[in-house]
Design a protein that fits this description.
Number of helices: 7
Distance between the termini: 33 Å
Helix content: 40-55%
Oligomer: single chain
Strand order of the largest sheet: 2-1-3
Strand content: 5-15%
Shape: globular
């Protein structure tokens, strides 16, 4: 059965109602994955206990949501947006800081009144710890220039990604902050990795 919720707040209310029995199940990509952590952030914001169900990736997760195996799922925009546009799944909210162009009518969790549900996936370029500073500076300039190229920006945006460049120190600060945040979420949720 489809979850009778059209907003993130309605889903949160249903999660609280079903919390005592631990009935509400949400799909993830496995223990400690980004969807698992985002699902736990949603459960915390909802004040509910939900049951994570691991799948081996987006394709299996979307199939499970369409088939009613799970009540909710946390998936990537690139995978979920086509299914939402086709009416096969209902997108309730996105975890980023702003709405996604692929789902312009879908609010962020912050807009939905749950600012604590924030998870932005990213790809980054890293180098070995002992790489000399001049080499890092050259790499940084090259990546900055590449990220300004209109063709690169379009290709990245076509993948449902937001092309952003952060200089090394800012990128390291973001990594450090996210490690603290997600370690705390995992600890509160009792997530243990093998």
């Amino acid at each position: 059965n489809a979850l009778p919720a059209t907003t993130a707040q309605e889903a949160a209310a249903l999660a609280r109602q079903r919390s005592a029995k631990g009935e509400l199940m949400y799909g993830t990509f496995g223990a400690g994955s980004a969807p698992h952590l985002a699902g736990e952030m949603f459960a915390e914001a909802a004040g509910a206990k939900m049951v994570p169900v691991p799948y081996k990736g987006s394709a299996q997760l979307v199939t499970a949501m369409i088939g009613g195996e799970v009540d909710l799922g946390v998936d990537t925009v690139s995978s979920a947006a086509p299914q939402a546009r086709a009416g096969k799944v209902r997108a309730l909210a996105v975890t980023g800081e702003r709405r996604m162009p692929q789902l312009p009518d879908v609010p962020t969790f912050a807009e939905a009144g749950m600012p604590g549900v924030s998870f932005v996936g990213w790809y980054g370029l890293v180098a070995p710890a002992r790489t000399p500073a001049p080499v890092l500076e050259t790499l940084g300039r090259a990546v900055s220039d590449i990220m300004e190229d209109p063709q690169v920006r379009k290709a990245v945006a076509d993948l449902a990604l937001d092309p952003v460049y952060l200089p090394g120190p800012a990128f390291q600060a973001q990594i450090d902050q996210e490690l603290r945040t997600f370690t705390d979420v995992a600890g509160r949720a009792g997530i243990k990795l093998d």
